[in-house]
Design a protein that fits this description.
With 415 residues, this protein is mainly α. The protein has helices at residues 2-6, 11-24, 30-37, 40-57, 61-72, 76-94, 96-114, 122-139, 148-159, 166-192, 200-212, 218-241, 243-256, 262-268, 271-289, 292-310, 313-327, 332-343, 350-360, 372-378, 385-414.
Length: 415
């Protein structure tokens, strides 16, 4: 954990250290560690990162921005809501880091078209960029394919003989996204108070940019159709073939169809992320198999067992608090990988507590390095690190209260 927080060496090196230290410590055999590292969850992350490269190479970013603005109009608050909503919608299917990478240049273009002096539009910049970052985080819990944390949790649930389909996950989580979107939009607008309430000139400049770009061809449209089929595969075939296999099948189709070159995938796919992701899964599996997760949950139950059994909401608060704190120190995937085996042993309702852990791990609002979406937005140079704490505390508090209310009101209705 110290290596991940301080990052004295590159994170992929930390990932390699996690793997080899488990072997040298005799946690498991070499084959056992390798098996826990290379799972369908890793295939999925690999495939989703490659799919992101294809989408960007096909030039859909400016057109998506213009499509958003056609729906929202020129009012700043509505534009922010549009960015937040589309980021949430997309990230629920293709992952937060992917959507953030796609949406950031769109948001930056709109900001730069508003004023060349960024010091005069700090509020507007923060409003647009945090709408993207937090939209990605909000939507990432909507489906199993929304983020690595979700796949990791499904993996742990499957190891405990608890299954959940793609559609059932959506039924349990998506209403929470729809609740969060307008509330978070209101909090962002109230916090940063954008300098311009109307963005007429910015929209006109964006229209000109799209008009001057290359026309969309049948192959561009076919790219979207193939991606739509991949999403359908995730929804209806994931339990049979796995999310990772379906994602890689889509990549294979794009390669043989000439939609993307392998050199582009090799150059733009973040291989270090894949290694880090696999190592955190392996670490979490070892925590579970060695009994460390049971030991820690027993310690928690020893101290709070009576309260948890008599007041069930206490377990919800405990899980949300632990997960939120750790997800702002580690990545959300690492948090679920480490805490998942622990929280699943707290209460008998494994499915509920597993989903609660995955959902609250998305509350990585407080720092610029807590989540890939936040880091990507921070890299723009248009927001300060202190801005994350300023808005993060407010959005985090609202999200925690809303989630406690949601799981204790909505879930009993559908169980």
């Amino acid at each position: 954990m110290v290596l991940i927080i301080k990052e004295p060496i590159p994170l992929p090196a930390v990932a390699i250290f996690i793997i080899i230290s488990q072997i040298y410590s005799n946690v498991d055999s070499v084959d056992g560690i390798a098996k826990s590292f290379m799972s369908d969850a890793v295939f999925f992350i690999m495939g989703s990162l490659m799919l992101a490269v294809v989408i960007i190479r096909q030039g859909w970013d400016s057109r998506i921005a213009l499509g958003i603005l056609k729906i929202t109009g020129n009012k700043t608050s509505n534009i922010a809501l549009g960015f937040l909503s589309i980021s949430a919608l997309l990230s629920s299917f293709i992952g937060e880091h992917t959507v953030a990478a796609i949406m950031l240049p769109i948001g930056m273009s709109l900001i730069r078209f508003t004023s060349s002096d960024l010091s005069q539009i700090k509020g507007l910049s923060a409003t647009i960029l945090f709408s993207i970052a937090y939209g990605c985080l909000i939507g990432s819990v909507g489906t199993p394919s929304g983020g690595g944390r979700n796949v990791i949790m499904i993996n742990y649930l499957n190891q405990s003989d608890v299954s959940i389909s793609y559609f059932e996950w959506m039924v349990r989580t998506y209403p929470f996204i729809l609740l969060q979107i307008p509330i978070v939009n209101w909090v962002i607008i109230r916090t940063f108070k954008p300098e311009y309430k109307i963005l007429d000139s910015s929209i006109r400049k964006l229209v000109i940019k799209v008009a001057r770009s290359k026309s969309m061809t049948g192959r561009n449209t076919l790219t979207v159709l193939i991606f739509f089929l991949i999403v359908l595969g995730w929804v209806f075939l994931s339990e049979q073939f796995g999310l990772g296999t379906i994602a890689l099948s889509g990549v294979f189709i794009y390669l043989i169809g000439g939609f993307v070159k392998w050199s582009d995938l090799n150059k733009n796919t973040h291989w270090g992320v894949i290694i880090l992701f696999g190592s955190t899964i392996s670490l979490g599996t070892s925590i579970r198999l060695t009994g460390a997760a049971t030991w820690l949950s027993d310690k928690i139950l020893y101290g709070l067992g009576d309260v948890i059994s008599t007041v069930p909401i206490v377990s919800d608060i405990l899980v949300i608090f632990m997960t939120t704190v750790m997800s702002n120190v580690l990545s959300s995937s690492a948090t679920v990988a480490v805490l998942g085996p622990v929280t699943l042993n707290l209460v008998p309702e494994m499915l509920d507590v597993g989903l609660l852990t995955a959902m609250s791990s998305a509350f990585s609002y407080f720092t610029a390095v807590a989540a890939p979406a936040c880091t990507i937005v921070y890299s723009s140079g248009m927001v300060k690190a202190s801005d994350f704490l300023k808005i993060g505390l407010r959005v985090g508090f609202v999200s925690i209260i809303l989630l406690i209310f949601y799981v204790n009101v909505y879930w009993p209705l559908i169980n």
